[in-house]
Amino acid sequence: MKNMLSFLVAAVVTVVFAVPSFAYPRPVEKLKDGVIAVVKSPLEIKDHAMAEAKDGSFLPFSLPAGLLKGSFYMAKKMVGGVLDIVTFPIDQ
Q: Which of 84, 90, 82 is nearest to 31 (CA)?
């Protein structure tokens, strides 16, 4: 009985300390998502400039508006990606 009890205690301790190791893929995914966001952020300028040019009736006003809007969203996406890269070891 004493051997069985010590085996169960060892098994419980092993499971308790092994559970945090199952959280490993999430920080790696966070790092990957952050790098992808930083790399793809310049595409926001093109996307928003094209959308504004299609929606706007007067191209000389809609194109600069799309460039400004795209620059804002690019900076927003880049800052979010950098934050994900910097904080990837900290799980959510």
A: 84
Query: CA–CA separation, 92 vs 90, rounded Å?
Result: 6
The verdict on residue 5 lying in a domain is no
**Residue 76: CA count within 13 A, CB half-sphere:** 8
Number of domains in the chain: 1
The 10 Å CB-count burial string (b at 16+, else e) for 35-63 is: eebbeebeebbeebbeebeeeeeeeeebe
- Structural domain harbouring 31: 25-92
Instruction: Confirm whether 2 is domain-assigned.
Output: no
Residue 6 lies in a domain: no
Tell me the pLDDT of the chain (92 aa) as tens digits: 767 888 777 777 776 666 555 555 678 888 899 999 999 999 999 999 899 888 877 888 888 889 999 999 999 999 999 999 898 887 65
- Is position 10 within any domain? no
What is the residue type of 79?
V
